[in-house]
Design brief:
The complex is a heterodimer of chains A (about 150) and B (about 160). Chain A has 4 helices and 6 strands; from the N terminus they run E-E-H-H-E-E-E-H-H-E. By secondary structure, chain A is of the alpha+beta class. The relative contact order of chain A is 0.22. In chain A, strands 2-1-3 form a 3-stranded antiparallel β-sheet, covered by helices on one side. In chain A, strands 5-4-6 form a 3-stranded antiparallel β-sheet, covered by helices on one side. Chain B is an alpha+beta fold. Helix content of chain B is about 20%, strand content about 40%. In chain B, the strands form 2 sheets. Chain B has a 4-stranded antiparallel β-sheet with strand order 3-1-2-7, with helices on one face. A 3-stranded antiparallel β-sheet of chain B has the order 5-4-6, with helices on one face. The chains are: A alpha+beta (about 150), B alpha+beta (about 160). The interface between A and B is medium-sized, with 20 and 21 residues.
Chain lengths: ~150, ~160
């Protein structure tokens, strides 16, 4: 199966419970680690060198093996997620800003959005979803300023 | 068939920048007109009263009869095109903004997004879509809006 690896940085000391930063999707854990080491040259990350994790995403949520395309599409969520216990009492209310899954085409990402909209836990705020697009191993932060 | 009416303020500024504001979605043209008469008194709108239009949408693209539901979900498209000369210098920005459809459920709006992405016109622009929603007959932009020029004039 094909995986992409997302480099994520969290700063638990950030104010307002800032969501973890996604710092690009990579074709291998090694490529993500190269990016991590490069980011350690920046003060923001150097102050929290232990805040990095690499999160694997199964491309298209399928088992087949194939090379990852250079372009990926993410299904992104930016909103709140409220969790309740069996009595309906809110047990957590978190701001979430993250990629939920990655796909090889925009249509596949949109089809995943349809499935999410069938789930009442996600469908309350459809405007919190967006489809993002990026280049594997070449996140925006690596590009020189225009 | 249920039709909804969207009151839009669509103004093209002399700079070339177009500003599209969807004031609200309504169950009848009369409701949309009431909303226009209210909005036209507000800053931003009152300086550009000629820029209101009412767009009509067939809910769910369906022919069934019935009253529109109180909640609606719309599929919105917003793409910025950068026009450049042969040397690559930016000439101007063009913004394509439009509501492509109005639906009774979020599922139907998401399914419409999949359908649109199968069309050549939209296939390469998956990131330009969003689903928004709201209550029918509810008017937004209650304090109007300001452009940088408006703010300069006021100060």
């Amino acid at each position: 199966m094909t995986f992409l690896y997302c480099l994520v940085h969290s700063d638990p000391t950030a104010l307002d419970g800032a969501a973890p930063e996604e710092l690009g999707f990579y074709s291998s854990p090694d490529a993500a680690d190269v990016a991590r080491r490069e980011l350690l040259n920046r003060r923001h990350f150097a102050e929290r060198p232990d805040g990095f994790v690499i999160v694997p995403f199964r491309l298209d949520d399928q088992d087949e093996d194939r090379a990852a395309a250079p372009v990926y599409f993410g299904l992104h969520y930016d909103g709140r997620i409220v969790e309740r216990n069996k009595f309906g009492t809110v047990v957590s209310d978190m701001r979430v800003q993250k990629t939920l899954a990655v796909f090889s085409s925009g249509i596949k990402a949109a089809e995943a959005l349809v499935l999410k909209m069938h789930d009442p836990d996600w469908a309350t705020y459809p405007w919190c979803f967006s489809i993002t697009q990026g280049t594997v191993d070449h996140p925006d932060w690596m590009r020189p300023p225009a | 068939m249920p039709i909804v009416y969207c009151l839009v303020h669509n103004h093209a500024f002399p700079s070339g920048i177009a500003n599209r504001i969807e004031v609200g979605f309504y169950e009848s043209p009369a409701r949309a007109e009431d909303a226009r008469l209210g909005a036209i008194k507000l800053p931003g709108f009152r300086e550009r009263p000629e820029s209101f239009v009412v767009e009509t949408f067939r809910l769910d693209d369906a022919d069934e009869d019935g009253a529109p539901p109180q909640m609606f979900f719309s599929l919105y498209f917003d793409r910025e095109i950068v026009h450049r000369d042969a040397a690559g210098n930016i000439l101007f920005y063009e913004d394509i903004e439009k509501t492509l459809g109005v639906y009774s459920t979020a599922v139907k709006a998401a399914e419409a997004l999949v359908t649109r992405l199968r069309e050549p016109e939209y296939a390469d622009y998956a990131t330009c879509f969003s689903i928004s929603g709201g209550e029918l007959n509810s008017t937004g932009w209650e304090t109007g809006y300001f452009t940088p020029d408006d703010e300069e004039r006021q100060s």
